[in-house]
Design goal:
By secondary structure, the chain is an alpha+beta fold. It has helices at 5-17, 22-36, 45-59, 89-93, 99-114, 122-127, 140-152, 168-181, 211-218, and strands at residues 19-21, 64-71, 76-83, 119-120, 156-158, 164-166, 200-201, 208-209.
């Protein structure tokens, strides 16, 4: 399928939303097909992947990419529109926020990424505005507005226990950045070599894996890719002796 108005409309939609679930992506594509396609084709997952592959080939020159991310906290697949340029975090955000607001975003991001369990309370995040010392502070009212905005934008994610964790857009867009900055704090999946903010940890060793990665691996082998001991942790319904959540790094 040649690059067409279908691709342009889908790119416009996902760049506007920032991130959408795979189900939402298919719904959007169906709507676009209805408007721009001349036949009665009903798009499926195969068509969706094809459209996104063609778009990525076009936008790669701008250091942009639509990434498929499995967000393990809610077990949902998302397509995320990412800016993967080598520019600093501040440079990426300056088009939307003031210097003080960018500094505040960075402080909250660092706090969550480096905390045990990589989570923080909203109260703690709100009060991090006091850590801005080299420029005017963000007011508490503005800090609350920003945290709400960044949560809705997918940068942070509210868990059922009341804490906040890194959201799907942070994982997709800033995962490598955080891994480079905080190498001693961020786990890396031994199977795909990417940052593993969420996942499952082997019962016998400190290795952490993305659920999808270890699930695929366990369809062929039954031992941990790291320590080679028999794998006994439940992964997305696969039977085993016990289920062990990911623990804070260094707790074993």
């Amino acid at each position: 399928m040649a690059y067409s108005d279908v691709h342009r409309a889908f790119l416009q939609a996902i760049s506007h939303h920032g991130f959408i679930s795979s189900k939402q992506a298919l719904t959007i594509l169906l709507s676009i097909y209805t408007e721009y396609h001349t036949d009665d084709t009903i798009p499926n997952e195969h068509h969706l992947v094809g459209v996104i592959t063609s778009i990525n080939a076009k936008i790669a020159r701008y250091s942009q990419k639509i990434k498929l991310v499995r967000f393990e906290p809610n077990r949902t697949d998302y397509y995320v529109f990412c800016n993967l340029s080598d520019r600093s975090l501040a440079d990426r955000l300056h088009t939307c926020y003031t210097d003080s607001e960018v500094a505040y975003f960075w402080i909250v991001l660092k706090e969550i990424a480096c905390c045990d369990g990589q989570s923080a309370s909203p109260f703690l995040c709100l009060n991090l505005n006091e850590h801005i010392t080299d420029r005017p502070r963000v007011s508490k009212v503005r800090a609350e507005e920003l945290l709400d905005e960044w949560t809705r934008a997918g940068y942070f994610f509210p868990e059922s226990n009341g804490t906040w964790i890194l959201g799907v857009r942070t994982v997709a867009e800033f995962g490598q950045f955080l891994r480079d900055k905080f190498e001693d704090k961020i786990d890396v999946c031994l199977l795909c070599k990417e940052a593993a903010f969420y996942g499952v940890r082997c019962r016998h060793c400190p290795e952490t894996f993305h659920t999808r990665c270890i699930n695929t691996y366990l369809q062929r082998l039954t031992v941990c890719p790291g320590c080679k001991e028999v794998w006994i942790v439940t992964v997305d319904g696969l039977k085993s002796e016990e289920e062990v959540p990911k623990l804070p790094r260094g707790s074993m």
